[in-house]
Amino acid sequence: MTAPLSIFKCIECGKEYDIRDIRYRCDCGHLLEVIHDLNTSIPNASDWKASLNGRMGETAFFRYQDLLFPSLPKESIISLQEGDTPLYDVSHRFPEFGSLKLKHEGMNPTLSFKDRGMVVGVSWANDLGCKHVICASTGDTSAAMAAYAGAVPNMQGIVLLPRGKISPDQLAQSITYGAHTVGIETDFDGCMKLVQELTEKHNIYLLNSMNSVRIEGQKAIGIEILHQLNWKVPDWFVIPLGNAGNISALGKGLRELYELGIIDKLPRLAGVQTQGASPLYESYKNGYAELIPQKAKPTKASAIQIGDPVSYQKAVGELQHFNGVVEAVSETELMDWKAQIDKLGISICPNSSVAVAGTIKLRDAEIIKANE
């Protein structure tokens, strides 16, 4: 029998499961990771890498699919032309860095990086024949899931939101795209708990970041950045931290590129949280001894107002592998740096400015060095 291209594997005990099983955790209770047979999907890494420049007419997911999720049949893919977002070089305005570039994922169809994950998550649900998909959200996830589910015939999106805690624009997106949208008198973590209960009891496919299939699509961000840099690996990647799925995806994609020999070194990773929602930062300061969930405080960076990140264990693994750090920034810092970047003609949201503010703090503390 031919070995499958992809399997689920527990990040804790190593137990393996069929990739077509609808499950989000191992029987031992820990999260799963998707493992691909990349030596089969990419038998010659040098040839694959060399072919990419000639495939720029393809949507980003199709171009990088052999690395992202090779088991997904092409006829099941639901794409809204996501990806190929700008990488702005702002080094001239920040001479204290050797180089500084900003990846603008707000240029995706529903205005966030979540589209990268939903092209895989919703497409996989489509291939499995799922008719209902669900997520808890602080805004970005719901917009992306609603849009991609809306593009699938006979698929219904269901969104649970913390009432009054997301922006009107984000709320409007999930409603406009046809998702059943429900406001709950709780925070994101309360919505997430309810989503897990519903998917355990009903035939509804979960599309939050605890779904390791969805995370595979978000690897495209790091892959695409490196392609834009002609595979010259930067010293650092700095990324906002909320539910911690994106930094988990970034690290996994970079590891896979390195293992295939497509890149010849690994960068360091930095995750940044707001001071009012900083459980991973507090854990980092204590050597990742334990995660103590928080009651996340209101923040302008509402998309990362999360006190109990589902992907904590994955994120810690990636941060440790990449000799990473975690920082936290104040409301004043994140809004000041939003204003500074906006003045460059690059409009960013407060969630993104968290990463900029964190980058500046890490440079001021000389964690990021002058030539990096």
For the structure shown, list the relevant keywords:
single chain, 372 residues, alpha/beta, Rossmann fold, 2 domains, four-stranded parallel sheet, three-stranded antiparallel sheet, 12 strands, globular
Give an overview of the whole structure.
There is one protein chain. The chain has helices at residues 38-41, 45-51, 60-68, 114-128, 140-150, 168-176, 188-201, 212-228, 245-260, 279-285, 312-321, 331-342, 350-364; strands spanning 6-10, 16-18, 32-36, 87-89, 101-103, 132-136, 156-162, 180-184, 205-206, 236-240, 268-274, 325-329. It folds into two domains: 6-76; 82-372, Rossmann fold. It is α/β, with parallel strands linked by helices. The strands form four sheets. The protein has a four-stranded parallel β-sheet, with helices on both faces. The protein is globular, with a radius of gyration of 19 Å. Helix content is 39%, strand content 15%. α4 packs across α5 (140-150), α9 (245-260) packs across α11 (312-321) and α12 packs across α13.
